[in-house]
Design goal:
Blueprint (H helix, E strand, L loop, with lengths): L1 H5 L1 H66 L3 H19 L9
């Protein structure tokens, strides 16, 4: 058996098997890295999307809290009426319609 391994044909055969196994192993490794990279890319995109949603929610929460604080700061009924007129006017300017007449 050792004589065959040390012969010319045996050396070529062993060398071919070693080279083929290195090529197949390298190919498998590259495929594995590509799959891992694709998974990480999808996860990163998901994390970025989640962070954007959280930032948008925080911004909306701050705006809502500011509006609540403004309403809480109003003392007299006249101030309420004026403030809500301002809000209606702002909504009209944004949408182009009268929200008070939306149900008519």
């Amino acid at each position: 058996m050792f004589a065959f391994l040390f012969s010319k044909v045996g050396a070529y055969l062993v060398g071919t098997v070693v080279v083929a196994s290195l090529v197949v192993g390298g190919y498998w490794y590259v495929i594995h890295l590509r799959a891992e990279n694709a998974l990480m890319t999808r996860q990163l995109a998901g994390y970025k999307r989640a962070m954007q949603i959280i930032k948008d929610d925080l911004k909306q929460d701050r705006e809502d809290q500011d509006e609540k604080d403004k309403i809480d700061a109003l003392i007299t009924p006249d101030q309420f009426v004026d403030y809500f007129k301002q809000l209606r006017q702002r909504a009209r300017d944004i949408s182009g319609t009268d929200p008070g007449n939306a149900g008519d």
